Amino acid sequence: MNAELTIIAAAGGDSDYGLSGVGHQKRQPRDLTTCARIGKHFLITTASNPTKSFFRTKWNTRGWTFQEALLSRRRLVFTEEQMYFECHGMYCCESLNFPLECMHRKDKQGFKKSFCVDGLVGAFPKGIGRTNTEIIRRIEEYTKRILTNPDDTFKGMLGIFNAFERSRRSGTKVEHYLGIPILPPMTQALKRGEISKPIQGWTPTMGFFVGLCWDLESPVERRPGFPSWSWTGWQSPVSWGGSSVFRWPSIQIDHKVKLAFECTDGQILSWEDVQKSRIEATTQPQMSNIIRITSWTIKLRMVRRNGRRGSYRYVACLKLEDGGRLYLRFGIISKVRLKHGQTCVGIFLDHLSMENDYNATIMVLARKGDIYERIGLARPMKFTYERYDRNGKADGLHSQSGSEDYEMFDSDTNPPTIKKSWKEIRLG
Fold this sequence. Notes:
This protein folds into two domains: 6-115, no CATH class; 134-427, no CATH class. The protein is built from seven helices and 23 strands. The chain has helices spanning 50-53, 65-71, 100-103, 134-142, 155-166, 204-211, 271-279, and strands at 6-9, 35-38, 41-44, 74-78, 83-87, 91-93, 175-177, 180-182, 187-188, 197-198, 215-216, 238-239, 258-263, 268-269, 287-306, 313-319, 325-331, 343-351, 360-368, 371-378, 383-388, 394-400, 421-427. The strands form six sheets. Strands 13, 14, 15, 16, 17, 18, 19, 20, 21, 22 and 23 form an eleven-stranded antiparallel sheet that branches. A four-stranded mixed sheet has the order 1-4-5-6, with no helix packed on it. Helix 2 (65-71) packs parallel to helix 5 and helix 4 runs antiparallel to helix 5 (155-166).
């Protein structure tokens, strides 16, 4: 972030390739400019648009280069064909002579809007983003890249996390814990014509619960040394698509939820204690990967695997307050096979409505020794429930279908209440 200029070696397949066109690394004849006169016409070749060509390079797939692209103030890019320069106000390339004077605004601090695409100058992003939820987008983009050393998964993103923490831009400052963003209060949905306002009573714990609503594209292996509740613990691209971040401002989180962090010496700290320890470096404790979450929980008993052989989608049975049962279909992120009759725990992270539990995001956990590990994320889908009357008599199976993303009961149907309990869970 403090460099005056970042030199980006976008050519070649590794760091030993060098800078194309510099020293012994000659450019290929096909990349050199050629010209010819044909009758009254003078023809000249130019290199391809560098803002498109370097996005197809190996450099753009690597994990550590993500910070170069995002945080650099000025970039000098060496592609196979030419050099390309870009800062926050302008861009130019070696093969074309741009009329930069005419392209700039009157204050000379940037290009005119007509020379910007979607409000951006050139191809690189200008900083970390404009809102605090864009940290979610940055994590999603980063996890699609490749790291030679899997242990660098958190380090390669640390500079961007620090930029969000130190941001002075209104609405972009956000903290994190081991990769999970602790989102500040968002705005609440109001009636048409009213001015939006922050959600009242918002706490860092509630922001952390929102940050936990990530999911994976498909089941993968765990990454050793990192917690299961963080995306850093899984070797796969992550996504918050359809999660709380993009359902704002409709979601609700129970104000009584609690969060605590365990140290390697056995201390249990609150988020306020963790922040204080960061400031007072002399008393900074050694944090572990274990957290303690206190929230509403449910028991999920595995009934069967759903779908074709090898599928990681399951059907689980939940108990209802009236004695009935509800069968919920969901997918898991872990490659660990669940057995018939195995019991897992679900933690309620958020709701679209606190009136019932069928619009919730549920983190699915499996016990491993004296702690639990995250294995999946469940959201309301199509399910079947067995409803009971007050006398304990079943009135048959009911299939409830809804939208593709969220399961909703019909307005004239009184949904059965899921049996749940308030518990503290140790999660590693």
